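Quick note —
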Amino acid sequence: MTIGERIKQLRKKNDLTQEKLADYLCVSYQAVSKWECGLSSPDLALIVPLAKLLNVTTDELLGAIPENNDMRYGELKADYDKTFKSGDMLTRLNVCETAVKEYPGDMEWLNNYAWTIWCRAIGELKGESYEQERERAIKLFDTVIENTDKDELKVNSITGIVQCLCNKGSKKEAKKYVDLFPEAKIIPSAKDKLLGMCLEGEEQVKHKQHYLGDYLQVLVNALLWDGVAENKYTCITAEKIIEAMIPDENYCCFHYEMAHIQFRKAEIEAKANRTHEALNLLKKAIHHAKQYDLLDSISPGEYAYTAPLFNKVTIDTREWNHTGNATLSDDIKELCNRKIFDTIRNDKEYTKLFAE
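Predicted structure written out below.
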């Protein structure tokens, strides 16, 4: 049997069309057709990815003795995971690009690649480059949604493509993908509820406090990021909820939300030409950002909440994932370049604020 005949046989066994095989290998479908007809053979550089795509070893593809030792996948995954601690997006992108070439058709790597492209575009790119990368991410997310049989992976890619399409302004198209969502997944999950029933004593209290914290995060996120009302009302409501549940102001990870709440309130005051109020709110935003940065990047480690509703909860900020190397303080300062703050930018208090 020729290599072309083996490719055809294995392609059909894996339920792949010539077009899909060509897309995964970044070649034309005419090239695949020529291989299978015996008119040409794949380039040597394509043998390894082709074998992996067809779920055989290179030796099996070439008709030789199979070899069962592949540690490369694990090495790439380890390199990829490390970037969530370092925030090194360029390395993450390089790892993903390598992985999708070496493991064509691997939907998890395609999903990782799509998210990396999208997150890097949001954090680092502008204009035409941003739009081009967003389109790349959309195409990759769509490929995963169409081809994966894993619900969790499909949910992840649907989340990504909906973000991209809504950002693009294509909300009707985005809704079509939402309709493909498997069973709704709510945090905390039904499993968490059942587990809470099975525990006792302090272990049960600790579990329920974590569970409550997850609910708080979902509620605050819904208010702060999902726009259920005008910014003024969502910000005030989110702030009051956090303050009520964490009255001792030891906000830990919620310093992130508090920083953005104060910044949004500052935008509202600046728009109304209330300079003094806007400056005071920016000070508060920077204060919360610095507190968050202390936990996240300056002195990462274990931190404990002390508020009565969460006094059994500790967080290990060394385990937090990162996208990029900018701190929250950097992000807030960058946001202050918005035109809405032009009217107060020459104020002495504003200059002091960013000189500290």
